[in-house]
Amino acid sequence: MNKYRTHNCSELSEKNIGKKIRLSGWVHRKRDHGNLLFVDVRDHFGLTQCVIENKDKNFKILEKIKPESVITLEGNVVKRSKETQNRDLKTGLIEVKITQIEVLSEANDLPMPVFGEQEYPEEIRLKFRFIDLRRNEMHENIKLRSKILSFIRSKMIENNFLEFQTPILTASSPEGARDFLVPSRVHPGKFYALPQAPQQFKQMIMISGFDRYFQIAPCFRDEDGRADRSPGEHYQLDMEMSFVEQEDVLKIVEPIFFELFNEFGKGKKINKPPFKRIKFKDSLEKYGTDKPDLRNPIELVDVTKIFKSEEVKLKIFKEIIKKGGIVKAIPVANTSSKPRSFFDGLNNWAISEGASGLAYISFNKENNKIKGKGPIAKFFSDTAVEELIKICKINEKDSVFFVCNKEKEAIKFSGIVRQKIAEELKLIDENSFNFCWITDYPMYEYDEKEKKIDFSHNPFSMPQVDINEFDKTDPLKILAYQYDLVCNGYELSSGAIRNHIPNYLFKVFNKVGYSKDMVKKNFSGMLKALSYGAPPHGGMAPGIDRIVMLLANQKNIREVTLFPLNQNAEDLLMEAPSEATEKQLKELSIKTVKKD
Question: Which of 323, 331, 336, 327 is nearest to 370 (CA)?
Answer without folding.
Answer: 336
